[in-house]
């Protein structure tokens, strides 16, 4: 995965850190503001659609974290992130509710852009590998937490993924015949 933004962006990188990318365990609390991933990551999500679609949580990011912690392979999602954001969200999020108003997100993005504008495309990047997050705690999912509780939402999520799983199984059928 690749995180283009940072949550709680008041700690913007300065000095040498502005050229540093970190490869670390993905944590929605820090990395879900602007997130991208490749097709193989999408296939992992799809293959665990039951973990993603059938838990009742309030956030796609927490559902994704649940997959990362509980999937059978045991390998948590990794992310490359930067302390200098390359993209911004202007709405209030789950993890950053401070100064949450109509224009605060826009002001915050413009302020960060002013601070970091010349570092958006640095001449070099340093990758800090295998940074592990300290607060890697076991995640519990509570019932009726504002997420997929509505059967229509669960069906919508499942329909986006189950057809992909069926196609993969049909494609694999020839290998076992």
From TrEMBL:
GO CC term, one of those recorded: Golgi stack
Assigned keywords, A-Z: Disulfide bond, Glycoprotein, Glycosyltransferase, Golgi apparatus, Manganese, Membrane, Metal-binding, Signal-anchor, Transferase, Transmembrane, Transmembrane helix
Cofactor names: Mn(2+)
Membrane topology classification: Single-pass type II membrane protein
Localization (cell): Golgi apparatus membrane
Primary location class: Golgi
GO molecular function: alpha-1,6-mannosylglycoprotein 2-beta-N-acetylglucosaminyltransferase activity; metal ion binding
Family matches, as Pfam families: MGAT2
BP GO annotations: oligosaccharide biosynthetic process; protein N-linked glycosylation
Pathway entry: Protein modification; protein glycosylation
Disulphide linkage map: 53-157, 92-100
InterPro entries in UniProt: GlcNAc_II
PANTHER family for the chain: ALPHA-1,6-MANNOSYL-GLYCOPROTEIN 2-BETA-N-ACETYLGLUCOSAMINYLTRANSFERASE, BETA-1,2-N-ACETYLGLUCOSAMINYLTRANSFERASE II
Protein name: Uncharacterized protein
Organism: Pieris brassicae
């Amino acid at each position: 995965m690749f995180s283009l933004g940072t949550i709680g962006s008041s700690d913007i990188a300065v000095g040498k850190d502005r050229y540093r990318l970190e490869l670390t365990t993905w944590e929605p609390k820090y990395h879900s503001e602007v997130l991208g991933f490749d097709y193989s990551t999408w296939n992992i999500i799809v293959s665990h659609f039951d973990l993603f679609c059938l838990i009742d949580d309030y956030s796609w990011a927490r559902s994704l974290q649940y997959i990362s912690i509980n999937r059978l392979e045991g390998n948590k999602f990794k992310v490359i992130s930067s302390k200098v954001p390359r993209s911004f969200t202007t709405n209030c999020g789950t993890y950053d509710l401070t100064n949450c108003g109509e224009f605060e997100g826009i002001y915050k993005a413009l302020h960060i852009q002013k601070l970091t504008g010349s570092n958006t495309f640095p001449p070099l990047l340093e990758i800090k590998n295998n940074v592990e997050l300290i607060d890697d705690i076991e995640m519990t999912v509570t019932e009726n937490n504002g997420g997929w509780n509505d059967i229509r939402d669960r069906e919508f999520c499942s329909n986006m993924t189950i057809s992909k799983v069926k196609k993969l199984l049909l494609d694999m059928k020839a290998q076992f015949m």
